[in-house]
Amino acid sequence: MERFHEILQNRHEYARAWKKKTGGKVIGYYEPYMPEEIVYAAGALPVRLLSQHEPDDTTDRQMYGNCACSRDILNQFIKGRYDYIDGLINAEGCQWMLNAFQTTLNNQPELFNHYIFVPDYVDGKTSKDVMRSELVVFKKAVENWMGKPINDSDLDRAIEVYNTNRRLMRQVYELRRADNPVVLGSEAMEMVLASQVMDKTEMNKILEDAIAKLANRKPRTDTGVRLMLVGSPTSDVALEELVESLGANVVIDEVCTGSCYFWNEVIPQTNRLMAISLRYLGRPHCALKDNNWRRRPAHIHQLYEDYQAQGVIIAKQIYCHPHGTDNPLIWKILRERNIPFHYFERDMTLPYEETRLRLEAFINMLKPMLVLK
Amino acid sequence: MSKQKWETRPLEVWNKAKEMRAKWQKSIDTASSERVLLAQGNCQWSIGFPALRVIEDNPVGAMMANKSDEFARVSRLAGEIIGWGREICGYQLNCWGAMYLGHQIDGSPFPLRDLVIPFSDPCDQHTKRGQAPMDYSPIPRFQENYPLYTGPQDPNRDKTMIEDKVYTTLYIIAEIERIFGQKFDDERFVASVKVSGGITPYAQEVSRFMQHIPSPLSQKDLYSFYTLGGLTKGDPGETVAIWKALRDEVEWRVQNNIAAVGNERFRWMEAHPPPWHFLKYYRYMEKYGAVCIGSQYSHMMAGPMELKKDGTWGPRFSGGGFGRTIDRPIKTREDAIRVMLGTEARGHRFKDDEVIRPWALDDFAKAYKADGAILPLWRCGVGCTVTRKEQGLRLSEMGVRVLHYEGSQPGDRTDLDENRLFDQLDVWMESQGLRKLED
Ligand code: SF4
Ligand code: SF4
User: pTM of the predicted model, to two decimals?
Assistant: First the structure.
């Protein structure tokens, strides 16, 4: 567990050390639709660009109205924190991230870069063909840049590493379903976040070890109210820790940097790129792409039931229009199903006192449910 | 008051444009009593369904902001109550807020939509558009992709992306036929595509005439026309005719130096929509002899334009039609759709035009000899604010003087400090050595 914490806290140092050790290249990416398997198969390290709690004193000249996540990534680039990044990929998600991608490139045009169009209509009949065609072009671009072809066995190996990681993470999440879980919400989220900035082969080894240790942990009887977290992506565990300090525990999340990151696997097929396309299009919908056949409400409800949550926290980034636009339906569904929820907006950092006060009130309101359990 | 340099006159075709817009508005208002289908969204092929009318929430929201701030405000509040944040586009909050309230500005019932065909091109908020009426009724919604790619031209990428759009469009039409029992009139559609293709060349010429000094039209004039044939639908023949009439009149104005602003001495440009409730600032700038020559947004019917190597301002795509290459005779539904969509997907999406073609605004400034640029910063805007600051920096480096002002969104008055904007304009003009010519 400590290792995940350490890596997440020192993710830049981790990537620099990886580079030094392997002589490989590091690719930064912005959106959860980036097909990491292709980058990994090429021998490079895909790293999700995560925001960090740091004063933003650089992006004002170039950005206005962006969400804090996208702003902070640019902030970190300008400050040189990402000096180890060799390439940038944007697999189209939201426009603020596309903006962060393009603006960073305007500042650092020497970086290898590629834009992958990802259908808005992820369930569309021809969308998988568009995605596959985009992956063909992307694979070629990576091959040219790396100077070597990516063959099927490379892809198979990468898919296996990634699928293993997904399965292991699901195992960790399964442990959270127990009445008395052995793993806390903050610990689980720290694992998922760390997995997005780590070499997955190494991650898998540590993860197997961690799961074995968790099996020997004593189930906790003190975790209190069971909560579900929904909303904009997060890049740290401050919220989970705050919840834990108030006598509650986040037992499940529907967050793009949380469970959505590893929930589904690549189902192998001869056409590897089609298999990868289907995996990414079939992942739990992000708010922006949950636009025709709505899957988020049903998915949220299923997770809520499966993990026996007693309430939902919806935490939205200020200026996050995908979640801002999706909220009314999520609220509606939760209300219709008598699911208590607390909605709030967060900025770059979590305003501690204010958030604590609000969450405390919400959790206190739910405490009688512990008696009913 | 100084002596006027150039003659000015009102535009003669203006009344006709007003009439066409009013007719379109009426057709929306009476849709339910006429028992025709009303769709939220935007699509060029809707004419094939004689009993289908299509309307975007953008013009509805903008019109609400322009006509009644009070009603727009109440509607936005209704939107907030059901869960939208304040940073959600004001067009959407105005329009769907009124749906929750159940009535329009004049108290008449809100025309409920029967289906949704979202137009995801312009910005992320458009991608999510139409979910409110879908969740409210519920009604069918037909999503499309707006694929694009960057980098060198790639015929395979073009093909896959265009095929996706062709397939989806054919699918949506077939689904509307199936679900609503309406017959798509292929002949009418094909005929309209043939005719509508004629708008673009006229719109391009009008755009080019705006390069003239003095500018024959100003931004305010353009706003009377820029949606005709796009968001404002009408009879295709009539629409082409008005664009031709506009082109002819503007050509005549250029030949005779008829100006939009009689004392033009400062040319400024914009980016994206203005605050629709506060269009006074155009007139205010005229007191300084400053004319607004438009924006990429108000020139949109011309299609994407670019500065050619020889310095001319021309369409980015060759061929006629919708500013793109026509590679086939137009006989069937599919031919017509293909012509509408063109053959190229590279870098063509309104949504990200300014993100992936950052030089487009520089070209616009050069082409129209802009001395200044007023670039709003919309706190609740996505597509209309993304990269605005960077563009300001680039224009400044080119010697174009830039003014930013802040507001909520073109359809949302909340954050716009009108007096401050006037002060900003005075300071901006005076800092460039210009004083009011009249008061
Ligand atoms: S927080 Fe929301 S707006 Fe910001 S990058 Fe993520 S999805 Fe986009
Ligand atoms: S570009 Fe701006 S005004 Fe237009 S829909 Fe998007 S947010 Fe609204």
Answer: 0.93
